């Protein structure tokens, strides 16, 4: 207890000493530490200065114009509608970052739309809190919605790595010096590889109107050797037929697991909407609901905010935002803290203490988060392995069962015939009544039926016949829900699966076999999406639907995808035995589905999906209780 009290007193002394030393050095009483401690009181005093009839939204002017053109109209319209619904006036202010920071201190702004780096800078000073992040459909989550893409001409024979660019011998084109994805993030891979981004970009030129397309054209025409554009811009330009990825080569390409676009850096959050501390909670709730319901171009949406720790790591490595004075403070101390040795010594002690404290807290926090993330990753990996093993076991069991039934049924007759002829010949030989012609005739019959059995083994998969099914009453929706859960846990695809149709669909069936049949169809649909070139896909539209339809005496289970374009001739191959449309397929999957449907007194067929994709339908008889059957009689 005594040690704890001494520690608390020491910390208080250090804090007040730091305030005094900082005030002496700054020459006034507006030190950073003093402002931090007194800002909550100032916010309470200044809270009444907000005009209650206005909702002021500040827009960061450093947001790239093409981002404003793409996403702002729908966003501002939704905000305006929400504000007018509350009998308020929406005031939009396009301001530079210094003006926004100053007006936030004076409580003259309610909400801010900005790039994520500026949000991180404001949030670090506890001036704002996030309510929404821009989520592009190519990103795994809102935290991975933007990055930088460093490109050279596909014909370039001199530039292949970041090390080549870091020599400083090449002309570089960028969107704008203040552009987050168009320049700032591009520095990150150089820092990670201990290369000088200052040398790499010493010959950089920025576009006149901050248009990434000008950067691509400069590289393509040879006016620049290297170009920096925001990630996903090339793919969007391809959709608009303004550029093509084949004209460029991406330097330092990154995996597309987090961001499904060509990019050269780690992925970070993109645009963010935040609110000033002190804004009415009702406004915050209404604004959040309005943003989350917006449909933006190219499949983008506003999403709930996620962790922005990666932003602070980036800003720390680049010495920007809240870390832009890390180097400057040491120089400032060297030049200005020479009044007395005593003041300098105290300042260095205080600075060292806080630096070690912050680093310790950061290391502990990040270590804890890393351990948690690794544990979660291991859990998901084990669950996925178990699910894949379960699916594989289902398939193997289904195939073995089918093959066993086929062989047992088809080989029974020729083997029985061979056995009868063999026993008959043996008896004749034992009795001495077997003449030459009889022996030859019987041996020919044995040879014929042996060859027939051999043909059955060679073509056994085409002779599948139904057998007795263990049937119980089930709800098709329950079987489908279980199958979808198993399929999603397997991690086979990121394409969403949606179940549609009736609320209850009773059936008398073997639920295990129906699960196997539907699982085969889901896997085929997932594989179909992988055959579509990434440049031709809009992942926001990828979808697998399972629709349960009521057709008089039957239920239709329809598995519908919108993967690649197919015609009717293509779908006719689906249920031909030992025929497959896959490069490495065996042709067993759909054959098993067909056989399982027939064993349930049903049928299955395939047809092209209007527009794009395939529809595979399983038709099964409805379950009718015995009481209802008796009533009909």
UniProtKB/TrEMBL annotation:
Q: Which residues form the Histidine kinase domain?
A: 406-624
**Reaction catalysed?**
ATP + protein L-histidine = ADP + protein N-phospho-L-histidine
E.C. code: 2.7.13.3
Pfam families on file: HATPase_c, HisKA, Phosphonate-bd
Signal peptide coordinates: none
Transmembrane intervals: 341-364
Keywords attached to this entry: ATP-binding, Kinase, Membrane, Nucleotide-binding, Phosphoprotein, Transferase, Transmembrane, Transmembrane helix, Two-component regulatory system
Report the InterPro entries cross-referenced here.
HATPase_C_sf (IPR036890), HATPase_dom (IPR003594), His_kinase_dom (IPR005467), HisK_dim/P_dom (IPR003661), HisK_dim/P_sf (IPR036097)
Q: What SUPFAM superfamilies would the database entry show? A: ATPase domain of HSP90 chaperone/DNA topoisomerase II/histidine kinase, Homodimeric domain of signal transducing histidine kinase, Periplasmic binding protein-like II
PANTHER family reported in the protein's UniProt record: PEROXIDE STRESS-ACTIVATED HISTIDINE KINASE MAK3, SENSOR HISTIDINE KINASE
- Protein name according to UniProt: histidine kinase
Organism from which the protein derives? Parasutterella secunda
């Amino acid at each position: 207890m005594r040690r704890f009290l001494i520690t608390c007193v020491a910390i208080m002394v250090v804090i007040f000493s730091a305030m005094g030393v900082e005030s002496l050095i700054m020459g006034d009483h507006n030190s950073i530490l003093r402002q931090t401690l007194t800002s909550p009181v100032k916010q309470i005093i200044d809270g009444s200065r907000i005009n209650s009839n206005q909702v002021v939204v500040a827009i960061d002017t450093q947001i790239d114009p093409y981002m404003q053109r793409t996403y702002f109209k729908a966003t501002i319209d939704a905000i305006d509608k929400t504000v007018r619904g509350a009998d308020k006036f929406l005031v939009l202010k396009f301001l530079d970052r210094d003006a926004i920071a100053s007006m936030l201190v004076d409580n003259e702004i309610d909400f801010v739309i900005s790039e994520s780096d500026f949000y991180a800078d404001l949030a670090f000073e506890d001036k704002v809190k996030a309510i929404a992040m821009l989520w592009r459909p190519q990103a795994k989550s809102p935290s991975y919605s933007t990055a930088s893409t460093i490109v050279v001409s596909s014909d370039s024979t001199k530039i292949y790595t970041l090390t080549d660019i870091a020599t400083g011998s090449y002309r570089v084109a960028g969107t704008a010096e203040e552009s987050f994805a168009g320049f700032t993030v591009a520095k990150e891979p150089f820092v990670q590889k201990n290369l000088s981004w200052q040398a790499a970009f010493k010959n950089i030129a920025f576009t006149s109107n901050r248009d990434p397309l000008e950067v691509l054209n400069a590289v393509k025409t040879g006016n620049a050797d290297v170009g920096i554009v925001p990630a996903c811009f090339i793919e969007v330009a391809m959709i608009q037929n303004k550029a093509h990825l084949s004209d460029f080569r991406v330097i330092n390409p990154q995996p597309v697991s987090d961001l499904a676009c060509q990019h050269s850096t780690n992925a970070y959050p993109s645009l963010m909407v935040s609110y000033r501390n002190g804004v009415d909670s009702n406004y915050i709730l209404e604004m959040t609901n309005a943003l989350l319901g917006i449909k933006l171009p190219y499949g983008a949406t506003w999403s709930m905010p996620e962790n922005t720790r990666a932003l602070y790591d980036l800003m720390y490595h680049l010495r920007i935002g809240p870390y832009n004075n890390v180097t400057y403070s040491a120089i400032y101390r060297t030049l200005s803290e020479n009044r007395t040795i005593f003041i300098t010594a105290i300042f260095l002690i205080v600075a060292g203490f806080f630096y070690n404290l912050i680093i310790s807290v950061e290391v502990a926090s990040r270590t804890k988060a890393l351990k948690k993330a690794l544990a979660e990753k291991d859990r998901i990996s084990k669950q996925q392995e178990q699910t894949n093993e379960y699916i594989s076991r289902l398939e193997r069991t289904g195939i073995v069962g089918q093959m066993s039934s086929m062989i047992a049924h088809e080989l029974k007759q020729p083997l029985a015939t061979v056995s009868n002829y063999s026993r008959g010949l043996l008896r004749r030989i034992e009795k001495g009544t077997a003449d030459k012609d009889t022996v030859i005739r019987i041996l020919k019959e044995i040879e014929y039926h042996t060859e027939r059995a051999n043909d059955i083994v060679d073509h056994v998969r085409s002779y599948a016949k139904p057998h007795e099914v263990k049937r119980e009453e089930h709800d098709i929706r329950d079987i489908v829900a279980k199958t979808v859960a198993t399929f999603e846990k397997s991690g086979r695809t990121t394409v969403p699966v949606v179940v549609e149709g009736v609320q209850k669909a009773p059936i008398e069936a073997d639920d295990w076999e129906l699960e196997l049949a539907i699982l085969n169809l889901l896997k085929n649909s997932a594989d179909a999406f992988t055959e579509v070139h990434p440049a031709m896909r809009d992942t926001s539209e990828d979808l697998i639907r399972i629709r349960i339809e009521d057709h008089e005496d039957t239920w239709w289970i329809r598995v519908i995808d919108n993967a690649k374009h197919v015609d009717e001739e293509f779908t006719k191959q689906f249920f031909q035995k030992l025929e497959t449309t896959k490069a490495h397929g065996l042709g067993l999957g759909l054959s098993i589905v067909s056989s399982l449907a027939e064993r349930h007194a049903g049928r299955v067929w395939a047809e092209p999906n209007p527009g794009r994709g395939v529809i595979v339908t399983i038709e099964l008889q409805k379950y009718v209780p015995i009481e209802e059957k008796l009533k009909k009689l």
